[in-house]
Amino acid sequence: MHIVGELMKGFLLPRRIEEFKPEFLARAQELFPADVEFFKANLQGALPAVSLVGETALLTAFANDVSPNLIFAQQLFGLGRREDVLLAISTSGNSDNVLFAVEVAKIMGIKVVAMTGRRGGRLRHLSDVSICVPAEGSYAIQELHLPIYHMICIAAENEFFGA
């Protein structure tokens, strides 16, 4: 969920909507002229992102009624598009719920970037890009993932919003 926050709002760079969504401001001027300056000052360019762990009602309903191993795969199947990228995170690289989501991504033509531990597990081999940090314990792997996903967010922001 933290990564989604970094992608959906400005992280390090300004993301002024007048530069990225001028058509939005033009339409806002037609419909809500009193609010245009407020929108301009506060809305930011966003990279569409969702966290597959955030929909608690869906996760519990699907896990109870269908299969807990497919909770992420189901969401990806419903929301994913060919031009998307799945960031799959598993410290062991062998989490069934993550692996099934990756398999669905591959079937749908969605690119997969994996973050995992030293060995990488099955996830390492299923992904288009695998980032295997040099650690073994979950806590150590998670600590090493933090700067990496921040760098991924910085790189994406530079690519889409940099000068």
H/E element order:
HHHHHHEHEHEH
What's the number of helices?
A: 9
Helix coverage percent:
55-70%
Distance between the termini: 27 Å
Report the major sheet: 3 strands, parallel
Question: Low-confidence runs (pLDDT<50, min 5 residues)?
Answer: none
Write up this protein.
It is a single chain. The chain is mainly alpha-helical. It is 55% helix and 9% strand. A three-stranded parallel beta sheet has the order 1-2-3. Helix 8 links the parallel strand 2 and strand 3.
Question: What's the arrangement of secondary structure elements?
Answer:
Elements: H1 2-8, H2 17-20, H3 22-31, H4 36-42, H5 56-65, H6 71-79, E1 85-89, H7 96-108, E2 111-116, H8 121-126, E3 129-132, H9 138-161
Parallel strand pairs: 1-2, 2-3
Task: Write a compact overview of the structure shown.
The protein is built from nine helices and three strands.
What are its keywords?
3 strands; about 160 residues; three-stranded parallel β-sheet
